[in-house]
Amino acid sequence: MRDHGGDLDRARAAHGPGDWLDLSTGINAAPYPVGPLPPDAWCALPTRETLARLEAAARSAYAAAPEAPCVALAGAQAAIQLVPRLAPPGAARVVTPTYNEHAGALEAQGWRVAPVETAEDLRGATLGVVVNPNNPDGRRWPPETLMAVARDVGLLVVDESFADTAPELSLLPRLGAAGGRIVVLRSFGKFFGLAGLRLGFALGDAEAVARLRALAGPWAVSGPAAAVGTAALGDAAWQAATRARLAGDAQRLDRIAARAGWRGVGGTALFRTYDTGDAAAAQARLATARIWSRVFPYSDRWLRLGLPGDAAGWRRLERALAP
């Protein structure tokens, strides 16, 4: 099993039951308000028209061209699982450290994966993967850099799962000017706080997107996901207000961490990563207050925290980290 956030079962097994505050993921803890759904969202198979409206809403929300190839999938994770099947297994490169499912999915399909340090190191790869902004250290690459790299990569996969809070980083408004094969992955659940809905998108290279659609099958997205996704992606006012709130909350979290003596490594407006000196001890300290955090197998110092979604959560975190 590859390690992930959101593993409250492990938290309970190690530290006991209780009213846990899960800050181990980068999921918005103040989700988009889901109202009543029409009965056919639950009872009928999604139609082509339903999915077309959803994909059009995604193009608009992500500032992609109206004609940009786009396929809705059951989360960005579904796309990650299918990407290795876009070409015969060969040599791939992944900018690391990053979300471990990219390398894991490629290796499971027989690809030889080489970790590299920067996006520029992807040049010459048959398939290259970069997460922008990166998880967990928040590294960022300008769109112009990635477009230049794409010209020297067989297929460049850019995971923009956390780009909703940094739209200036997205390649999607610029895909028409790209000189290489690019597939951009977008997560719906993280920014909108509805990860259980399982919705995401792949956009970009026409051949690759068509292949992903074929591999995913006819009903890759549920009726409720299509209905909620179409409404939320079209709600520009909620998105703008949420970006502003998350930016302020990220700064608040940095101040709390600094008072605890932690040094900022990086992150996004949905999560922050800190050098705590001793990640296991820091996680255990938070766990005594029933707050779950994320540590990483490749660093004994880094700890990642999501943002609390309400005043009670912020009070709990502040008390737990009080000097």
From TrEMBL:
Keywords: Cobalamin biosynthesis, Lyase, Pyridoxal phosphate. InterPro entries: Aminotransferase_I/II_large, CobD, NHTrfase_class1_PyrdxlP-BS, PyrdxlP-dep_Trfase, PyrdxlP-dep_Trfase_major, PyrdxlP-dep_Trfase_small. This is threonine-phosphate decarboxylase. Its cofactor is pyridoxal 5'-phosphate. GO terms for biological process: cobalamin biosynthetic process. Pathway: Cofactor biosynthesis; adenosylcobalamin biosynthesis. It catalyses: O-phospho-L-threonine + H(+) = (R)-1-aminopropan-2-yl phosphate + CO2. The keyword Lyase applies. It comes from Rhodosalinus sediminis. It holds the Pfam family Aminotran_1_2. GO terms for molecular function: pyridoxal phosphate binding; threonine-phosphate decarboxylase activity. Its EC number is 4.1.1.81. Decarboxylates L-threonine-O-3-phosphate to yield (R)-1-amino-2-propanol O-2-phosphate, the precursor for the linkage between the nucleotide loop and the corrin ring in cobalamin. SUPFAM superfamilies: PLP-dependent transferases. The keyword Flavoprotein does not apply. It comes from the Bacteria. Coiled coil: none annotated. Residues 61-307 form the Aminotransferase class I/classII large domain. Transmembrane segments: none annotated.
